[in-house]
Amino acid sequence: MPSNPRLVEALFRLLPYVEDENDEAKAASAGISMSDLLARLAAEFDPKPNERTVRRALGDMSELVSHVGHTRGARWFKTSANPLLRDERTMSANLAIALCALNRVAARQLPAVVLADLQPYFERATATLALERNNERAKRGRSWASKTLRIDSTQPVLPPPVDAGVYQAVTQGLLYDLKLSFRNRPAGQTEPGERVYRMSPLALVDRGGVLYLIAWGPDSPGNQFMFRMDRLSDVRVLSEPADQDPAFDLTKYVETESKFHFMPEPEVELRLRVYESANGEQGRRSSHMLREFRLSSDQGPVEEGENHSFVLTARVKPSVMLRQFLHSHSDSIEILAPQSLRDEFAQRARNLLKRYDDASVVR
């Protein structure tokens, strides 16, 4: 029976690299003992693999790993630094997954000439995952695109860092469809809570650099929970298969989950008067961004007005994000309706005027 692919990948990652395995002194110095290797694996696997299973996996990896010494005195190491590219004639499932992920985001990250050169590799990667129908890694690779999503940020702030071990464990659970156990630090607290969660990971969302884990547990079937990755600790990948939710759709979840939109309110008809400034070249009026970007899919056509302005109407849900956008363009956007939102921004304007018009507070 082939070795567990997750165990094989963990072994290759944990073993130190030795360039010249014939230099036994260097190999012995760089290599690690079986007991150390088992201890490192125990930190990632629950239950931990036994020594017999690990030795069988190392035997299956004989082209990539080696050892010096015998029995308890043996020191293990890897002899290849890059297994993904060791055979130019074939493409591994892992490399295919990486290239397909790159293809999804590369359009706005790489020059066109580079993309053109990479296109054959993208096509080859897609074909690799499609053709290897019975390859477990290929199956996971085909499903990976539906498990990750990025939502760009418009805020000039630095996102909180995520511990590398937390990220590794969460993505392993997602990729291999295994349950996770973890602790969560509640908002405003400095220490994690006492509760240990055991949940099935569903997706990972990157919203402006802040990573969120979407998961669900046996106590609330059908209900998804969102955890900020930087607040997680003691994350372990369990051996128990994750509970699948065939009805879960990541795109629809993000569109409807209120936490991603920061406290949205009931939908209203928003009516704005937008003024275009004379900051263009040679004194020409510069086009306002709302001539090109829509606030909703059913937004009506703009109505041209006086003084280089236009009026637009859209059905939207007032939220923190919408208010931040309107406030950032408050010198060029006037809220006409609803009246409650107009009154709110009028009070904001009065507060701003009071603070900026009071010379006595300047220090």
TrEMBL record:
Provide an example Pfam family for this protein. Answer: WCX
The record places domain WCX at 267-353
Domain WYL: residue ranges: 166-237
Q: Which InterPro entries match?
A: CBASS_pafABC_assoc_protein, WCX_dom, WYL_dom
What domain of life does the native source organism fall in? Answer: Bacteria
Q: PANTHER family annotated for this entry?
A: PROTEIN PAFC, PTHR34580
The protein, known as: WYL domain-containing protein
The top of its lineage is:
Bacteria, Pseudomonadati, Pseudomonadota, Betaproteobacteria, Burkholderiales
